[in-house]
Amino acid sequence: MSTFAEHPSHEAPGPRLAISYAAIQRGTLWLLGASSGFALVEPSPYELVFLLTLFVFALAGIRFSQKLLPLAVLLLLYNIGGIFSLIPWMDEIDSVRFTAVSVYLMITGIFFAAIMAEDATSRLETLWKGYLFAAWYAGIAGVLGYFDVAGLGSLFTLYGRASGTFKDANVLGPYLVLPILYVLHRILTGRSGLLRGLTLISVPLFALFLTFSRGAWGNLVASALLMIGLAFLTAPNGTQRSRIALLTLVAFMAAAAALAVALSFENIRSVFETRASLDQSYDQGVTGRFGNQFRSISLLLEAPNGFGPLRFRWHFTEDPHNVYINAFASYGWLGGVAWLGLMAATCYVGWRLVFQRRPWQQHAIVLWPVLFVTILQGLQIDTDHWRHLYLMIGLVWGLAALPKPASPAEAAARYESGRNQR
After folding, report:
1. Over the stretch 358-389, which tens digit does the pLDDT of each residue have?
2. Which of 67, 129, 211, 414 is most buried by its number of CB atoms within 10 A?
3. Residue 227 maps to a domain
4. What is the distance between the alpha carbons of residues 330 and 314, in angstroms, rounded to a whole number?
5. Are strands 157-158 and 161-162 parallel, antiparallel or unpaired?
6. Domain ranges, residue 84
């Protein structure tokens, strides 16, 4: 009698590695989130990974819901306005690049909205994990740079403030808010242990503090309060509400203790006292930031095509630091009105979304507070080229476009109807 040992060709086959196409898609999404935290070079790794992700999803086809048409139309009008505004300045490479980046970001926003049509919760979790990974390495770079570890201060700081793997501390700070709130929400709802959760947000939170960005600080506090309020209001029972209230108190006590420790260092305290003041010299006077914004309005009312991409600084020595004024200055009246319309429509969609009992409601409760506060933050900083802004806009619209899941009774009725038709 023959045996397997005598005939190796008869050996039982070993385990095979099977990777589903859905897993490949989620893998590229994780990589996209993980690459979003590095913006020191152009094009950044995020741009290259996005092209790969777009290709992978396009192979299986990307469904586009009719409910996303307002998003697509408003973004398209916004960029058409930018192209018209660019025409007199086609020989300026910076202006051409600025407009091209706007078109690219439009595509990313629509892409994120469209891919929520299938496997939404799983894809969101994958993006969160990649984003959190990016927040950690960006945060570590910011902390190492601030303390000039191994001479990294010149690479990872700007004007004495942590900028990490971004070119601007004022962008690094707001970028870190979303992953911090994602982990905080998991702590409050019991999806993550308190110690593990606080460990996960420790580095991103410390790095955000070291950016000394007033906008980022305000974004974090306002977004956190709004998220906690929404989580409390939508909690399924009193036990969950009590847990949220108790852990919120613990989290804020931990944050206060960490702040007290940080301010015990003289070099940190001195910068904090300067940056915490709302009365900054560059904001004051007729030629200050807000004075320039006010003076630009009368000029923009006489310029249907705007000033041209990046041309505001030629009139007022610096950028507007106001995304709504910049919309009219760089994208003309068409782009400015389209941007205002997009923000208004997004607010309508977002506020409806967070109160709908859906499987993805908890994701919306994390996303929407950060996006809403970022929309408001546009009054004091140019946010139109923030990659994570388009990520959040796309995800909120994509979730809002999802149909209401069928109840067990409705699913059974559809099944019976299908059987009868057969």
Report:
1. 999 999 999 999 999 999 999 989 999 999 99
2. 211
3. no
4. 12
5. antiparallel
6. 74-96+284-402
